[in-house]
Design brief:
By secondary structure, the chain is α/β, with parallel strands linked by helices. It has helices spanning 38-50, 68-73, 88-94, 102-119, 147-153, 164-167, 172-177, 194-211, 219-229, 308-319, 346-349, 354-358; strands spanning 13-18, 21-30, 58-65, 125-133, 140-143, 160-162, 182-190, 238-246, 254-255, 262-265, 270-274, 277-280, 285-288, 298-305, 332-334, 341-345, 364-368, 371-375. The chain has three domains: 13-229, Zn peptidases (Aminopeptidase), CATH 3.40.630.10; 239-305, OB fold (Dihydrolipoamide Acetyltransferase, E2P), CATH 2.40.50; 321-375, no CATH class.
């Protein structure tokens, strides 16, 4: 069955289960893009299994539909991308708007629902954002580069991608990371592929187990891990995003056909074309999330594999607090208003390789005249 065939939903809350004992919260948002209902199908399956009552649960498990109106229309969004509306300024301004568009109204309701779930939590809060992609391919996980989130996403035997959230403003997962939740996003596969529902169901069972809502060793979680473990192929286990190809309607951007949602590409390979000509791979690497649909401002992302040795080294250095020394480098200081932001003099920034700061999660760069700021999701 197609994941988008005859899909309808009449309320924001897809399902909610409160455990017998106090414990963690796992809150999932599915369908924040209205042409991506696979996560809702997956959640309904999991709730149907849990409602038998033979699995003891702790805390709370709750799933919300992200963009109800667009889900019923079967379109990505009506006015604007609801997964680009979660910056601090955008959320602050939301309550003061006298005229709200379709996505504003959705965001007001979704924010209130998530705030309520966080407010009544009886333990650590975990928030997942479930998606599918316009390109064919395999499921994968995205996360803000914090130590708790690194630890959490390792339970999924899928490619895990760091750095993408920091390159895109206003994504839901980043907003909740800044509120000390363990947040992650999952792309389950291609929009209309029924296998995407299976993959997202597997991710749900593993997330419930890792969060501590359900006991470890459930047959559903074991079967989910086995299913996901077969899908990675020749894609590295850990990926790092290096560049976002931002596009506008005037760019006449056209992705070359045939790329999967994660795909290896050799240096010089033609990736896309726009009004300025060919866009080719700058080196051997990986193209991520190629755009094959009408709506969207991300043409594709470009990245590379990260070795397990590098990941372990990063973990150790961050655990012992070496990243606190970055503010002592010449030309670098820590922002007094935000301890997760570094301020670099532009002349000094040229002295340091990009990896010096990426290593510790400082990936979000912004220009401010003579200064450059680098920010990370959290510690």
């Amino acid at each position: 069955m197609s994941t988008t065939e005859k899909f309808t939903i009449d309320r924001r809350e897809v399902g909610r289960l409160v455990g017998t004992d106090p414990g963690p919260t796992l809150a999932i948002v599915a369908g924040i893009h209205g042409n991506e209902p696979a996560g809702i199908h997956a959640a309904r399956r999991v709730f149907a299994r849990l409602e038998r009552g033979d699995i003891r649960t702790r805390g709370e498990f709750i799933v919300f539909a992200g963009n109800v109106a667009s889900l019923n229309l079967g379109i990505r969004y009506q006015v604007k991308d609801l997964n680009r509306c979660w910056s601090e300024d955008q959320v602050r301004e939301l309550s003061t708007k006298t005229e709200k568009d379709a996505e504003d109204l959705e965001q007001v309701e979704l924010l209130a629902a998530l705030d309520a779930a966080v407010g009544r939590s009886r333990g650590r809060v975990h928030i997942g954002d479930f998606h599918t992609t316009s390109a064919s391919g395999i499921p994968f996980v995205l996360f803000g580069d914090t130590l708790p989130q690194r630890q959490f996403v390792r339970v999924f035997p899928l490619p895990i991608i760091m750095g993408l959230e920091e390159l895109v403003d206003g994504v839901l997962a980043s907003y909740w990371t800044r509120r000390n939740c363990v947040a992650f996003s999952c792309e389950g596969g291609q929009h209309d592929d029924p296998a995407s529902i299976d993959s997202l169901e597997a991710v749900l069972w593993l997330a419930l187990e890792e969060a501590g809502v359900t006991p470890r060793g459930l047959p559903e979680a074991l079967a989910g891990a086995e299913l996901l473990n077969t899908q990675r192929g020749n894609i590295p286990r850990v990926l790092e995003v290096l560049e976002r190809r931002a596009i506008t309607e005037n760019d006449a951007f056209r992705m070359e056909p045939g790329f999967r949602n994660l795909d290896n590409a050799h240096e010089g390979r033609l990736l896309a074309r726009d009004r300025n000509g060919d866009i080719r791979a700058p080196s051997d690497g990986i193209v991520m999330l190629p755009l094959y649909q009408g709506l969207g401002s991300d043409g594709f992302f470009w990245g590379r594999g990260v070795s397990q040795t590098r990941m372990k080294a990063i973990d150790v250095l961050r655990q012992v607090g070496v990243d606190r020394l970055l503010g002592l480098l010449p030309g670098v200081k820590r922002d007094d208003a935000n301890p997760e932001r570094l301020v670099l003099r532009r002349a000094a920034a040229k002295l340091y390789p990009r990896d010096v700061f990426n290593f510790f999660g400082y990936r979000k760069a912004k220009n401010h005249g003579e200064h450059l700021t680098l920010e990370r999701s959290g510690s």
